[in-house]
Amino acid sequence: MKGKILFLAGLGVGYVLGTRAGRQRYEQIKAAASNLWNAPIVQKRVDDVQDFVKDKAPEVAEFVADGAKKVVAQVAGRGSSSSSARAATKAPAQAPAKKAPAKSTTAKKSTSGSGS
Which of 63, 105, 111, 114 maximizes the CB count within 10 A of its CB? Predict the structure, then answer.
């Protein structure tokens, strides 16, 4: 059913964009589409779908968040599993030494005016 609706919508859009019938035919199609959209039965269905989405949105958001957490955990587990295993077998001899801040090797350019 979804495929048929998408096909018909694509067919309509293709016709409107590709038509050579002129502005009058375009206005007829636009009016028919507007009448269809504003029909009471269509608007009732739109309201039903909006209510359904409002009811289900928190569940969907939770489901997506849980899935994302699982993916992150799997990716993080793969990337650090070998290094964490090696780190666990070694006894820490000493704390790593802190590096001194790097000195800038770029020379500052003179900003004095050249036109005296």
Answer: 63
Q: Which run of H or of E encompasses 29?
A: helix 23-37
Q: Give 20-74 pLDDT, tens digit per residue.
A: 667 788 888 899 999 999 999 999 999 999 999 999 888 888 999 999 999 999 9
Distance, CA of 6 to CA of 12 (rounded, Å)? 10
pLDDT above 90 for 94: no
pLDDT on residue 69 = 92
Q: Count CB neighbours of 12 within 10 A.
A: 13
* Residue type at 95 in one-letter notation: A
Q: Which two tokens stand for residue 61?
A: 């958001």
d(CA 62, CA 64): 5
- The overall average pLDDT reported for the chain is 75
Q: Would you say 42 and 36 are in contact if contact means Cβ atoms under 8 Å apart?
A: yes
C-alpha to C-alpha distances, 112 to 22, 97, 107, 115, 116, nearest whole angstrom: 67, 42, 15, 9, 10
